[in-house]
Amino acid sequence: MLHVRFFKTEEKPQFCLQSTNSMETDVFGKALLDYLNDDYSEDILTYSSLDEDDVIPVPYLFRTYEDMPGIEQKALDLCNGHVLDIGCGSGSHSLYLQKKGIRVTALDHSAGAMECCQLREIENTLCTPILEHKGMKYDTLLLLMNGIGIVGKLGQLKTYLEHFKSLMNPQAQILLDSSDIIYMFDDENKDEDPDDLQDWELDSGDYYGEVDFTMQYKGMQSKPFPWLYIDFTTLKNVAHECHLECELVTEGEHFDYLARLTHL
User: Fold this and answer.
1) Is the pTM of this model over 0.70?
2) Which of 117, 160, 189, 249 could staple 91 via S-S, CB 3.0–4.6 A?
3) Quick one: how far is CA 264 from the chain centroid?
4) Neighbours of 4 (CB within 10 A)
């Protein structure tokens, strides 16, 4: 199963992938393990419904805190208590927190990603889809590199937020970053104030942040899978419907932001 997490360049949103059940093979996990086994020879290629081809540089997934974007650094600085790193990928965020003495559980549904985390000596790992993880409580739920995109479609956001609530202690927080990609559409739409877009829809009738992706790596090809970019206003509105307070912590330079959700 591969989930997707996006990161930003100055020109357009890019992404890195975790597992999702739309995947025929664990392309992301294979790339991570190749890198750890000194078999790195190419990067992950991505194709989207936005007609944007892109590349995920595999070494970037193993970056240190010092090489992370400011939004990620800020999120890690805010982590406290028992942290659930949802869609942990290679485990770079979990590894940093563990070295700081913070209790962290790294979760991903990619078996390759979990093996990677274990090889990097992350102590607590879970190989499961987040919606199937139940019965535990955490103080921080962490979803970085556009981690909230795992919901796929805007209509599924409530389901995920309600599940996140079931994993939260009374004073817990959700830390997530995402991006508003309205700027990627035509000049007429991208110049609009998002609050003025009727129901946040474009001509397709879908929320503009819903994107389908396919990826390739060393001859392996995935099936298309959905990913969600969500603007802050929409996130805040849906969060309030789920009785969660949504705070804008900081904004990046490329239409990205960090949000903090807590119980109302």
Assistant:
1) yes
2) 117
3) 24
4) 27
